[in-house]
Amino acid sequence: MVLLLVIIAERCFATTIDKKLNSCNITPLLLNQAFFKAAYIFFIQLPHNRIAQLFGMLIALIVLGLAVLVSKSLATDYSNFVQTPNGGDIFYKTRAYQIAWNDSLVSPTTQLELWLGTQDSQGLSYVYKIGDVANKDHFYNWTVPNWLKDGATYVITIRAVTMPGVNDSSNYTFAIVDDRQNGAYEFITPRANETWRNNGAISWRSSIPQKVVLRILSQSTTVYEHIFSGSELFNHDAPVNSQKNDREFIMHVDWPLTNAAAGQYTIQVFSDQALLSRELTIIKPTITISAPTATDKWIAGQAYTIRWQTSNVSRVGIQLLWDTNVSYTIVSPIDALLRSYTWTIPANFATSNRYAIRIVDVDSTNAASSGLFSIVNPVSPNNTVDNTPTSAPLLLKLGFSPRVYDIIRSRNHWIPTVSLFNAYGYNWDNVRIVDKDELAYYPRTKLIQAQGDYRVYYLTDSYMKRQVPNPEVFASYQNRWDDVMSVLPQELSAYPDSVLIRAQGSAKVYKLENGVKYWIKTAAALEAHGFSWSKVAPVNQTELDAYPTGAPIQ
User: Which range is least confidently modeled, 183-192, 196-205, 331-340, 390-399?
Assistant: First the structure.
């Protein structure tokens, strides 16, 4: 029994240690002979009583346990420990690269030899010994010699000096090439088989910034070609941005085909002796808006769903246009695949029949707009304000003043001319004379809109009109749509334009012209241009900021 246990222990130990015996100069046969001789003498010849035999059996069990533990610790695979380069890499001469291996080797003090070889159909051939290194670092920084031949059949082999027979090579071959050729030698962008949305930058490394040709082909047809000379490569006004370090130049060229059709393209960068080629796919983001549609009427204060379809778009933003200008952003960014967004229109939104929804691809310049639709008053859902009285309005005037006012929706509205009085169909016999206090009971009409027109105007205290530039400005004054008065177009024309403004609390006066504000730098300049201080109207900061700024008026 004791002998059987000894045999088992010896086999567990010997079957896994055979790999290591050569490093100790002991053959498996010598080990077996020594093992059995010692076991026979110690466990069989020496014991002559049962106690001694039992003690021998205990020792045998201990040896068996140790053998199992040793066998596990020695069961390490040394056949695949090279990590980089491990195939498919490109190493450039005179540059430093890292040769790395894993930590499967038992001892950190194991001495290693690093060899460069070539692998072909004839087998492995060594080129030269790179160096000696201890296992503890697991990497070695290697500068590729310039004298090596260009080729793609190189491998790295690592040998364990103190463990004969333990070695490993790169799984596949890697390339070593010259980085000192004229012109381009390595692409940075686009990456291999990359997909672009018709934008991006072509970039490459070059050791010598001599003449370089950039060519773009579509279906084997050249669609773009440009030759960059050495001087142009360093001209910051040119379409190339060049960076230089001690070893190389990095070139960046913005994608030149801004309206390129979707499809496959081949980018070539080359000089007299070097050619790089890379495949690129251009995709066209598309956006189609299905709601709102032209002629839709959406009521302020209610919720509506904006719907769209996209292709090759990841994220979108939704904007509201007012007369083709961006009024404000409803939401951005959101997932394009949602395909819908519910928008609650603010209750005090400006009535207009010239709104549109614009959906933009936030990752490119692509965008789509809906047809023009209307946002209407919740009280009277039409494209313009309807304040036709159900009965004859009050007509009031002060005894000492020729001005006549009609009272509509509890607001006094000055009728600026006799012809307009008659155009509204009023009767002079119905005009009642009141005092100041009674007239003041009715607030002044400040917001007007010509019948059939989407634009809303503010009337100043001196009865000059100024168009409200966008819904944000309308809301910033806490205006309500109930306060907008619909008037005849000829009444709108009767009011002079308010063209001089200043921010509340500021002395800077601006002139408005075609929606642009121009600062009048001095009082002398204001008077020299025939303007009057009495016609300067105060505005809030929101309205002032809504106007783009032009050149100052001297």
Answer: 183-192
Helices 28-40 + 2-21 axis angle, to 10:
160
Output the furthest CA–CA distance in the chain (Å, rounded). Answer: 149
Q: Which of 83-97, 118-132, 373-387 has the highest mean pLDDT?
A: 118-132
Please give the Cα distance from 347 to 281 (Å, whole number).
47
Q: What single-letter amino acid sits at 376? A: V
Q: Which of 426, 402, 321 is nearest to 368 (CA)?
A: 321
State how far the Cα of 245 lies from the Cα of 248, in Å rounded to an integer. 6
Percent of the chain with pLDDT over 70: 75
CB atoms within 10 A of CB 315: 15
The CA-CA-CA angle for residues 286, 289, 292, to 5°, reads 170
pLDDT band at 21 (very low <50, low <70, confident <90, very high): very low
**Is pLDDT of 236 > 80?**
no
Element at 146 (helix H, strand E): none
Question: What is the H or E stretch that residue 521 is in?
Answer: none
User: Which are the contacts of 383, defined by CB distance < 8 A and separation ≥ 6?
Assistant: 297, 351, 352, 353, 374, 376, 454
Q: 0.90 cut: is pTM over it?
A: no
* 8 A C-beta contact, residue 433 and residue 398: yes
Under a CB-based contact definition with an 8 Å cutoff, are residues 21 and 27 in contact?
yes
Tokens of 451: 């019948």
The C-alpha atoms of residue 430 and residue 525 are separated, in whole angstroms, by 49
Place of tokens 């009082």: 523
Q: Are 99 and 85 in contact (CB under 8 A)?
A: yes
Query: 59: which residues sit within 8 A by CB, 6+ positions away?
Result: 42, 43
In whole angstroms, give the CA distance from residue 473 to residue 447.
13
Residues 270-295: pLDDT tens digits?
Answer: 776 567 788 888 888 899 999 999 88
CA 89, 90, 96: angle at the middle one, nearest 5? Answer: 105
Which amino acid is residue 362, in one-letter code? V
Is the CB of residue 348 less than 8 Å from the CB of residue 262?
Answer: no
Residue 437 has pLDDT above 60, yes or no: yes
* CA atoms of 553 and 544, how far apart (whole Å): 17
